[in-house]
């Protein structure tokens, strides 16, 4: 199965010019499937954590957005228990002009600034809104427990 030139170019750039705090390595059996690690951004409740994600480029990429999910458990209003991510660039705001690295940077930014007003994990979002200190404390505890 030959890969489109675009995927080859993007993969080469991810490897040769990695995004700080993010690694994305294609699977040797399937070059559309990436093992991703994102370091928790400093100053966020996720600081010090290493979060594993999987990223898959569908056959229609770049017309369709990549499929991305967290494999590491995380306490975050925009990421549900199954690791699915609520992020506009993965859904309605996807554009073929975006790249894998743009998506990974957006996910890293989401860790820095959770958005409880557009939640995927409703209970977490409620906690974030009603008792932000407690939500941040729980997010730190989960980071220590699951992302070390």
UniProtKB/TrEMBL annotation:
Its EC number is 2.3.2.23. It is an enzyme of class 2 (transferase). Residues 2-148 form the UBC core domain. GO terms for molecular function: ATP binding; ubiquitin conjugating enzyme activity. Keywords: ATP-binding, Ligase, Nucleotide-binding, Transferase, Ubl conjugation pathway. Belongs to the ubiquitin-conjugating enzyme family. This is E2 ubiquitin-conjugating enzyme. It comes from Ogataea parapolymorpha (strain ATCC 26012 / BCRC 20466 / JCM 22074 / NRRL Y-7560 / DL-1) (Yeast). The lineage of its organism: Eukaryota, Fungi, Dikarya, Ascomycota, Saccharomycotina.
């Amino acid at each position: 199965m030959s890969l489109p030139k675009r995927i080859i170019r993007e993969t080469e750039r991810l490897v040769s010019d990695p995004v700080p705090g993010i690694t994305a390595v294609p699977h040797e059996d399937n070059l559309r499937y990436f093992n991703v690690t994102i370091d928790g951004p400093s100053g966020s409740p996720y600081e010090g954590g290493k979060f594993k994600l999987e990223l898959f480029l569908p056959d229609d990429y770049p017309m369709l957005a990549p499929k991305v999910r967290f494999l590491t458990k995380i306490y975050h209003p925009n990421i549900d228990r199954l690791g699915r991510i609520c992020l506009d660039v993965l859904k309605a705001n996807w554009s073929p002009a975006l790249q894998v690295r743009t998506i990974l940077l957006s996910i890293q930014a989401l860790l820095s600034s959770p958005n409880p007003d557009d939640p995927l994990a409703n209970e977490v979002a409620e906690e974030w809104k009603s008792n932000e200190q407690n939500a941040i404390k729980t997010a730190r505890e989960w980071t220590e427990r699951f992302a070390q």
